[in-house]
């Protein structure tokens, strides 16, 4: 009983101290306006509001609080950018200030076992993100068979059916590349990008961003912003073939489409990742016809949040060869 009383007293003292410190800190920055955001709980901050799908929850918050938000995640302050202009302000205008990862983002390598885990993470990051993009693209095309047929018709015209696709064919396949861009837009593999941290206090859109603030770019929200994209929930590769989006590049130069991030901390494997998705997806679409299993009435398109944004239900399909049979021989 005495132990319980002591623990209760300690907890109350801790909460009171936390509230007092938070109040004092808010007064010191009172003259410096922080970005709007949800009011968090003591100690845990806004963590309960994020749920199982943080990118979706943050996108909903952005509709209420605006393109730049500030919230507490545990005891850490976090800024979230949810529009191309906000992302550009952080990743281009203030690129140097947000060029570092949080201190706990890296792991100290102290033995060969930790080195093996690190290498495994590197390979996983390179394969899971690409494979998830390919799976989403195939799922969207199976849901929209006209897109699949149009992609196959383009490849039949450029490549024919007597050989397989090679990398040098890809520049001559604009519709395939548009499908890949549309997949990067609607289903980014890393919906919140990897976190960064501010080296110094700064100002964004008139708001004060304290030192050591974590930064997350909601790439998922940018790709589904109706102010940026017409009918954003529709999978429409044609949007990248003409008009204002025809020259958009996913390599970090156009902030409407930054599936690999942007600035100094852009993914080092951006170019390889794009080529890998284009090549593997093109090979699969050119080489096979894809259909849903007979017992599948409607394709499940729900997401599963993780290291890569994958389908909650793995894609199952019936495939049949569509090229001359000798092409498949080794």
From TrEMBL:
Residues spanning the membrane: 6-25
GO MF terms, alphabetically ordered: heme binding; iron ion binding; monooxygenase activity; oxidoreductase activity, acting on paired donors, with incorporation or reduction of molecular oxygen
Family in the record: Belongs to the cytochrome P450 family.
Name of the protein described by the UniProt record: Flavonoid 3',5'-hydroxylase 1
Cofactors required: heme
Organism: Nicotiana sylvestris (Wood tobacco)
Record's keyword terms, sorted: Heme, Iron, Membrane, Metal-binding, Monooxygenase, Oxidoreductase, Transmembrane, Transmembrane helix
Gene3D superfamilies: Cytochrome P450 (1.10.630.10)
Residue positions binding heme: 267
Underlying gene: LOC104236486
Signal peptide: none
PANTHER family on file: CYTOCHROME P450 98A9, FLAVONOID 3'-MONOOXYGENASE
PROSITE patterns, per the entry: CYTOCHROME_P450
């Amino acid at each position: 009983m005495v132990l319980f009383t002591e623990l209760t007293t300690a907890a109350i003292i801790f909460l009171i101290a936390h509230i007092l410190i938070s109040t004092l800190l808010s007064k010191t920055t009172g003259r410096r306006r922080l970005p709007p955001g949800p009011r968090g709980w003591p100690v845990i901050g806004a963590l309960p509001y994020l749920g199982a799908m943080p990118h979706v929850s943050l996108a909903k918050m952005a509709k209420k609080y605006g393109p730049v938000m500030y919230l507490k995640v545990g005891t850490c302050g976090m800024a979230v950018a949810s529009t191309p202009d906000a992302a550009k302000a952080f990743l281009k205008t203030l690129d140097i200030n947000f060029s570092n990862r949080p201190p706990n983002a890296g792991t100290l390598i102290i033995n060969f076992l930790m080195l093996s885990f690190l290498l495994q993470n590197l390979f996983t990051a390179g394969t899971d993100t690409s494979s998830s993009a390919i799976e989403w693209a195939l799922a969207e095309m199976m849901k929209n068979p006209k897109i699949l047929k149009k992609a196959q018709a383009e490849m039949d015209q450029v490549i024919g059916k007597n050989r397989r696709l090679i990398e040098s064919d890809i520049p001559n396949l604009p519709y395939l590349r548009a499908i890949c861009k549309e997949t990067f837009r609607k289903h980014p593999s890393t919906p919140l990008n990897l976190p960064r941290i501010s080296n110094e206090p700064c100002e964004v859109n008139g708001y004060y961003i304290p030192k050591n603030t974590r930064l997350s770019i909601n790439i998922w929200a940018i790709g589904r912003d109706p102010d940026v994209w017409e009918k954003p929930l529709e999978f429409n590769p044609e949007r990248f073939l003409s008009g204002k989006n025809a020259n958009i590049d996913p390599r970090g130069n156009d902030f409407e489409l930054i599936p690999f991030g942007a600035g100094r901390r852009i993914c080092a494997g951006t170019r390889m990742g794009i080529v890998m998705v284009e090549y593997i997806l093109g090979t699969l679409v050119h080489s096979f016809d894809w259909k849903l299993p007979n017992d599948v009435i409607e394709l499940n398109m729900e997401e599963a949040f993780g290291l890569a944004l994958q389908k909650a239900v793995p894609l199952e399909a019936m495939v049949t060869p569509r090229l001359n049979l000798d092409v498949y021989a080794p």
